Sequence to fold (377 residues):
Amino acid sequence: MAASALRRGLLSSVSKYNKKHAHRILSVVDTSCGFEAYRPRLLCRACGLPDAVQQRRFMSSRNRPEGKILETVGVFEAVKQHGKYETGQLFLHSVFGYRGIVLFPWHARLYDRDITPPMSDSKPEPPGAHGSKEVKGKTHTYYQVLIDTRDCPHISQRSQTEAVTFLANHDDSRALYAIPGLDYVSHEDILPYNSTEQVPIQHELFERFLMYNPSKTPPFTARDTLKAWQEKNHPWLELSDVHRETTENIRVTVIPFYMGMREAQNSHVYWWRYCIRLENLGNEVVQLRERHWRIFSLSGTLETVRGRGVVGREPVLSKEQPAFQYSSHVSLQAPSGHMWGTFRIERTDGSHFDVRIPPFSLESNKDDKAPPAGYTF
Fold:
């Protein structure tokens, strides 16, 4: 985890690096276990370093763990301020530090409660939610990506690597299954790089979904299996709304996904998955202690849920490891509803404060006649 913090610290500095500089970064990783022995080299044309230095592989026996093999990952490209990244773009995640590759983009509506909007094009508050302001939606690009499996063990304490789940296609209405190493990434989380490797990402779906084509930029193009899988699973993968709110330097981002409807005991049960990221934007070390949810159903019920931590954890958010991301699920016996709530956060001196979870809608406006295909090709 210390090494992952080292990578995250580097990436934080890269994201803040002078945009006038042309970035050239050689990343040295332990190929046997992700980035345990990460040794970065930040190189820049504007600083006058020669190309020979930029392309040199960096090896250090003094810093290298015994028995480990180090190799270059690639060279960073300029971050896109406008437009979107294409299928096949290699990247490092600017928050969690893993290697990944873009499969395809999603265009979502971002509802940021930290921005005071005009009265038009906004979402009203759900019944009983905190606050009274309406929030303007803004189009924002996210990406469906594959995570390099070599990096999964090193990020599992900060971000779930099996967070994209589907309803199973059988009688058990509560059965779920996950596709490991599939994630959603915001445009600003992408730090693009290129590589000379024909298979730079290790994931069992990489060669099923993508093919190497050196005449293209980036040199990885979508196979027909990826296009067919995207089309077949579009209703269950689609990311449409993103909700964000900050309380005392703790930013909470929520992304809900409709998963489908199942019949149970002569009634319809509607399922949603929701992904939550907590980010500490300040310098103070804090820890999540409790969650408090309010769940409103269109049927007229209002449920309250309280508990310790989230998904069995009470994560610490520090300047070195500022973020924690997880997914969970909710079901209603109605086709729509709302959720909102708070997280109880503890400071190092033992005092507490509540961080607001932005209210979000649970909508089932997809075609329930086509069950999710999940891992089917």
